[in-house]
Write a structure and sequence with these properties.
The chain is mainly α and 223 residues long. 73% of the residues lie in helices and 0% in strands. The chain starts with a helix and ends with a helix.
Length: 223
């Protein structure tokens, strides 16, 4: 059971990073022909597809911040947290390795999609915190609350990733996902400010879980 879940998380995160950062790489290769809207759509669509593909196997966290956020709110068992985190990081590194092999065959230097804050440390932390808070709140509202229309969860979550990427892509890369940032950083050595992409998403996800739980409790019918 745990092996199946880990494999699904690794595969889902692999394709998230492969398609998302691969689109960034393709955009560089094409001189910006895809553009920020195309990149945002690539991330949102691959998340939506991977939730459909792996959600019934592992829950399709695809993101250490999501796993930790779910655990912190009592929705995910603690023994599975390190298994999921390792699987997600392995998937991300495998995807970045595959893209690095492709990049080596190209004649011009292009990005592997490493994330760096273009707005400094404090604002970078704030942007990633808010973006991840939004993503985690939608995940909780759509996929863990029986009062929400769960069958539309992949669409809503994918759309949120797209919106967040459009809003924050030019500022911080709109990572919202430590694994998504870790893979490119490991392959390129772009570690400057990398801690931002762990601290802010995890804090944002945990705070979103807290806020969602408080709102759900406040709105619960009384007997």
């Amino acid at each position: 059971m745990n092996v199946r879940r880990a494999a699904a998380e690794a595969m889902g995160t692999f394709f998230l990073v492969l398609v998302g950062t691969g689109t960034i790489m393709a955009d560089d290769h094409l001189g910006g022909a895809i553009g920020p809207v195309g990149i945002a759509l690539a991330f949102g669509l691959v998340v939506m597809v991977m939730i459909h593909a792996t959600g019934h196997l592992s829950g399709a966290h695809l993101n250490p911040a999501v796993t930790i956020g779910l655990w912190s709110s009592g929705r995910f068992p603690a023994p599975l947290v390190p298994i999921y985190l390792i699987a997600q990081l392995v998937g991300a590194v495998a995807a970045s390795t595959a893209l690095a092999v492709v990049r080596a065959q190209l004649a011009v230097p292009i990005s592997l999609g490493a994330t760096t804050s273009q707005v400094g440390t404090a604002l970078g932390l704030s942007v990633e915190f808010v973006l991840t808070f939004t993503l985690m709140f939608v995940i909780l509202a759509m996929s863990t609350d029986a009062r929400a229309a769960g069958r539309f969860a992949p669409l809503a979550i994918g759309a949120t990733v797209t919106i967040d990427a459009l809003l924050g892509g030019a500022l911080t890369g709109a990572s919202m996902n430590p694994a998504r940032s870790f893979g490119p950083a490991l392959l390129t050595g772009a570690w400057d400010g990398h801690w931002i992409y762990w601290l802010a998403p995890i804090a944002g996800a945990r705070f979103a879980a807290h806020v969602h739980d408080r709102l759900r409790t406040a709105l619960a019918p009384t007997t």
